[in-house]
């Protein structure tokens, strides 16, 4: 123990029991006053939220979401943010996935909204409702320029299940810029298939390796060698291919090396992807090259 501590101990020890009790009571009273003062200041108008800054909100519900968050936030202080109340204020809006909250003393509240993105449209009778990648039904969200799921009913609990949920997850892995190119998605005997608005079909296969398959599909869609293709196959993303015969658009499972195929084989970033045309099993002399990046599994 330091000399100062020893000195304090001697002073306290020299006090009478009554004075020691009074000293303890004074310390407790001081702590209580400090606690009460902090509680008052924490909820006082001096630190009341006067400015609510909201980021990440878009879509038709954006004005309502902003209004709900602003009203909830202005009832708080920067020293006492009730995040549960903020979440409850936007719970009616399925597009809101989560909130991130921070403050700037003394009066600014920052809210970052993580919204679910619509990736497909569910058609139920005359209703068209947008759905997110996790299967959440986004009532009120724009339902145009998105691929259509097989016809079904709108789930009462607001969340897709079964094949519909799998389709939503597959579309959710697609680069946002390519989704408007697709008309619909469905399940064929050889796996998942997607149809472009122009009529071409993409054989996707199983709902695995989504990142690699979408990278391969995006590369095929961008390649000049695949213009006019009837079917594109990314079931083996390392060997994506395009078929130009009408008969290849049926629902049967067909090998990527069939006749009428343009096979595109990716190497590493910065190298070329070769697309070689074959007809009736005979290799044509012409070979077209396009820039490509190897998809990641």
Shape by Cα distribution: elongated
Number of strands: 14
Q: Which spans of ≥5 residues are poorly predicted at pLDDT below 50?
A: 251-262, 264-297
Classification by helices and strands: alpha+beta
Reading the helices and strands in chain order gives HHEHHEEEEEHEEEHEEEEE
Number of helices: 6
- Proportion of residues in helical segments: 25-40%
Integer average pLDDT: 82
- Sequence of strands across the biggest β-sheet: 7-8-9-10-11-12-13-14
Radius of gyration over C-alpha positions, nearest whole angstrom: 31 Å
Whole-number tally of structural domains = 3
Amount of beta strand: 25-35%
Distance between the termini: 63 Å
Structure, explained:
This protein has 297 residues and is an alpha+beta fold. It folds into three domains: 47-115, membrane protein fhac (Ubiquitin-like (UB roll), Roll); 117-160, no CATH class; 173-291, no CATH class. It is built from six helices and 14 strands. The strands form three sheets. It has an eight-stranded mixed beta sheet, with helices on one face. A three-stranded mixed beta sheet has the order 1-3-2, with helices on one face. Strand 4 and strand 5 (127-132) form a beta hairpin. It is elongated and about 105 Å long. The N and C termini lie far apart (63 Å). The model is unreliable at 251-262 and 264-297 (pLDDT under 50).
Question: Which helices and strands appear, and what pairs or packs with what?
Answer:
Blueprint: H1 3-14, H2 17-42, E1 51-55, H3 62-73, H4 83-89, E2 96-104, E3 108-115, E4 118-124, E5 127-132, E6 137-138, H5 162-172, E7 182-188, E8 191-196, E9 201-205, H6 210-222, E10 231-233, E11 241-243, E12 261-265, E13 272-279, E14 282-291
Parallel strand pairs: 1-3, 9-10
Antiparallel strand pairs: 2-3, 4-5, 5-6, 7-8, 8-9, 10-11, 11-12, 12-13, 13-14
């Amino acid at each position: 123990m330091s000399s100062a501590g020893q000195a304090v101990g001697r002073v306290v020890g020299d006090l009478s029991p009554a004075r020691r009790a009074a000293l303890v009571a004074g310390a407790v009273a001081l702590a209580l006053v400090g606690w009460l003062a902090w509680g008052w200041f924490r909820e006082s108008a001096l630190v009341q939220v006067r400015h609510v800054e909201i980021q990440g909100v878009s879509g038709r519900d954006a004005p309502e979401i902003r209004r709900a968050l602003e009203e909830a936030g202005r009832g708080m202080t920067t020293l006492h943010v009730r995040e549960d109340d903020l979440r409850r204020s936007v719970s009616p809006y399925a597009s809101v996935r989560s909130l991130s909250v921070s403050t700037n003393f003394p009066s600014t509240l920052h809210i970052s909204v993580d919204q679910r993105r619509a990736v497909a449209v569910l058609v139920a009778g005359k209703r068209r409702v947008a759905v997110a990648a996790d299967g959440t039904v986004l009532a009120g969200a724009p339902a145009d320029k998105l691929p259509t799921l097989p016809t079904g009913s709108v789930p009462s609990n607001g969340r897709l299940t079964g094949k519909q949920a799998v389709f939503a997850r597959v579309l959710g892995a697609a680069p946002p810029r390519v989704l408007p190119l697709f008309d619909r998605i469905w399940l064929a005997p050889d796996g998942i298939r997607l149809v472009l608005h122009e009529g071409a079909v993409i054989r996707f296969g199983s709902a695995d390796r989504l990142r690699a398959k979408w990278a391969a599909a995006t590369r095929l869609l961008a390649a000049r060698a695949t213009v006019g293709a009837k079917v594109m196959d990314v079931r083996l993303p390392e060997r994506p291919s395009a078929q130009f015969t009408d008969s290849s658009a049926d629902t049967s499972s067909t090998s990527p090396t069939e006749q009428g195929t343009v096979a595109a084989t990716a190497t590493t970033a910065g190298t070329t992807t070769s697309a070689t045309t074959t007809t009736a099993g005979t290799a044509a002399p012409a070979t077209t090259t396009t820039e490509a990046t190897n998809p990641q599994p």
